[in-house]
Write a structure and sequence with these properties.
7 strands, globular
Length: about 240
């Protein structure tokens, strides 16, 4: 078991390299992407190192419509010396896993390609239209407000999972949410902006789910309710 874990362990520098290489490969085709998930948390200031890379594709109105699998193929074709596709454990799964490796002697890093419309992910407006996107270490990130609510949603979804190996993930999700809530500068911005009704970032359905999920989170962690109240939520 130890050897298996070691084989797939990657350091944070490899994670950053994978994200950067993904951005560069897609830029050659006029495609913009932003980091989400644990990598975005880390770059905003979380202490936990991510295990993989999650990139959200932003669709331009005049760009051809591509699926996540087509985007993965495009990345591998553009940079075959660093990217490759790996079959999942389930041979019937309709997808392949995109992987990045700096050299043939290093462990690979998994890169998830996410499309707008899945898991309440919006097509984040282009930064030229409004200042939605923050760039840190040359990596564009989804808005902090959206990241916080998506992490809360992940916590709620994992908590409801029947399979133990999926359900246990809610513990880390809860910790991630708490770390985000403790980023004083970013939270102060949210307290001033109160962006929760921004239809470009949060669909009406997502807004409704969030209200319920905040209350559920605060029931489980009542000592954290004040932080949500300061952001304008009922607990």
């Amino acid at each position: 078991m130890w050897r298996r874990q070691q084989k797939h362990w990657v350091d944070y520098n490899c994670i950053i390299s994978a994200a950067t290489a993904t951005i560069v490969a897609l830029k050659k085709h006029g495609i913009t992407c932003v980091a989400v998930g644990s990598l975005a948390c880390k770059l905003y200031g979380s202490s936990r190192d991510p295990n993989d890379v999650d990139m959200l594709i932003l669709r331009s109105p005049d760009a051809p419509v591509r699926t996540a699998e087509q985007v993965k193929d495009l990345i591998v074709t553009t940079d075959p010396s660093h990217f490759f596709l790996k079959s999942p454990r389930d041979p019937m799964a309709p997808y392949r896993i995109l992987c990045y490796r700096r050299t043939s002697f290093e462990a690979y890093c998994k890169v998830d390609i996410l499309m707008p419309g899945t898991m309440y992910l919006p097509n984040v407006p282009h930064p030229s239209s409004r200042s939605y996107i923050t760039t840190i270490s040359d990596i564009p990130l989804i808005p902090f407000s959206l990241l916080l609510l998506l992490k809360l949603h992940a916590w709620s979804e994992h908590l409801a999972e029947k399979e133990q190996h999926q359900r246990i993930k809610h513990v880390q999700d809860a910790a991630d949410v708490w770390q985000l809530l403790n980023m004083k500068e970013k939270v102060a911005e949210l307290q001033r902006a109160q962006p929760w009704h921004d239809a470009e970032l949060f669909s009406e359905e997502f807004q409704g789910l969030t209200k319920t999920q905040v209350k559920n989170y605060c029931k489980k962690y009542p000592q954290r309710a004040d932080a949500w109240r300061t952001l304008g939520f009922e607990t």
